Amino acid sequence: MTFQNTREFARELDSKDALNDYQEQFIFPKVNDKRVIYFTGNSLGLQPKRTKAYIDEVMNDWAELAVEGHFYAEKPWWDYQERFAEPLSKIVGALPSEVTVMNTLTVNLHLLMVSFYQPKGKRYKIICEEKAFPSDQYMFQSQVNFHGYKPEDAIVEIKRREGEHNIRLEDVLAKIEEVGDELALVLIGGVNYYTGQVFDIKTITAAGQKVGAKVGWDLAHAAGNIKLELHDWNVDFAAWCSYKYMNSGPGNASGCFVHEKHHNSDLPRFAGWWGHNKERRFKMEPTFDPVHGADGWQISNLPVLSLAPYLASVEMFAEVGMDALIKKRDHITSYLEFILHEIDKEVESTFEIITPSNPEERASQLSVFLHGEGRALFDYLMKNGVITDWREPNVIRLAPVPLYCSYEDMYDFGQILKKGILGK
């Protein structure tokens, strides 16, 4: 399709968009009494209007049933997480038994590393990407310290080539081959938070396992954003947060994936009573008997009030389907890219998009170097109703989330951006 940088063209695209009506199912902040253009769904998704009803249901059950809500609420609390199995399995490409919801992201990655990072002899090293999200970096450092290794010896970062913004797949595979029988674990972010680069999960997983390592993925920026086939790709484990592309609310519960090949294994885990045999959980038995599947990694009583908004979101995803989301994601991201290039022609500043141009290597994010611009332009955008994200030294991250961003939003952003530059 040949794009045009006009309001009429953007509105025409919206009129043909099968997901356009979903904008009305979200609550938008306002700036200057006008609905914002929201580009930070890669940090915190907007609140779906249906969320309140799901929370109110739990609050009403608590008020009317108190402790009996565990068994007699409309959605009994004692197995509340089981309602996620079917819709989440479709979002991440898993069997229903391979997914569960609990805790928060880094907590779950730590817990999963108990099972899947088992350094022994010369096999103790972890491969991750350079400039991983800081929480992952801290996790790796503390994990290897716990096992008695030095981070500088045990953590192997795959680096970008000089002058390049993204990591080449060939360099990932070469590093895995180089570390070889010293490699215990590969754990990479499925989508790099800074550049928006999407990694080839299938190929990297196979390469890591070929040399005898376990392979896991931090899917914080991937779940609900890219096409995942975790079961078929033979991924050992994964975890993700729910508050970015899945709109569950700030700091909310994390999802976990454990491949079925590990469900009957004797992998170590930190146990708790919510992972105990469901039918015998309330018999208070002294010996742990794990639930079969990913639910066997549960530990504590569920935070049902946190899970309620997440359930509202995954049921919306079930209505829409990942294929429809990805189709619009690719199209609206391409339109945003076009708008940026068009505005670039009209101003003296230069925009450098550091997210890969190949649609197979990007998702709902464009990270843009604003050469010749500084923090003042970001402040101008925010004051004029464009909610975006700033990363030093002069990068803005733009996430045109397909559920609630419109093509007209992309056009309006371009006009505001141009005015902010020309009006200096």
UniProtKB/TrEMBL annotation:
Cofactor(s) essential for the protein: pyridoxal 5'-phosphate
* Cited InterPro entries: Kynureninase, PyrdxlP-dep_Trfase, PyrdxlP-dep_Trfase_major, PyrdxlP-dep_Trfase_small
Q: Which UniProt keywords apply?
A: Hydrolase, Pyridine nucleotide biosynthesis, Pyridoxal phosphate
Instruction: Show the stretches that span the lipid bilayer.
Output: none
Cite the EC number: 3.7.1.3
Q: In its keyword annotation, does this UniProt entry include Hydrolase? A: yes
Residue ranges that the Swiss-Prot or TrEMBL entry lists as coiled coil: none
Gene3D superfamilies, alphabetized? Aspartate Aminotransferase, domain 1 (3.90.1150.10), Type I PLP-dependent aspartate aminotransferase-like (Major domain) (3.40.640.10)
Specify the domain of life of the species encoding this protein: Bacteria
**Biochemical pathway:** Cofactor biosynthesis; NAD(+) biosynthesis; quinolinate from L-kynurenine: step 2/3; Amino-acid degradation; L-kynurenine degradation; L-alanine and anthranilate from L-kynurenine: step 1/1
Where do the annotations place pyridoxal 5'-phosphate binding?
Answer: 105-106, 133-136, 218, 221, 243, 273, 301
* Reaction equation(s) it catalyzes: 3-hydroxy-L-kynurenine + H2O = 3-hydroxyanthranilate + L-alanine + H(+); L-kynurenine + H2O = anthranilate + L-alanine + H(+)
Q: Which Pfam families match?
A: KYNU_C (PF22580)
Family of the protein in this entry: Belongs to the kynureninase family.
Subunit structure, per the record?
Homodimer.
Q: What biological function has been recorded for the protein in this entry?
A: Catalyzes the cleavage of L-kynurenine (L-Kyn) and L-3-hydroxykynurenine (L-3OHKyn) into anthranilic acid (AA) and 3-hydroxyanthranilic acid (3-OHAA), respectively.
Q: Which NCBIfam families match?
A: kynureninase (TIGR01814)
User: What is the protein named?
Assistant: Kynureninase
The gene that this protein is the product of is kynU
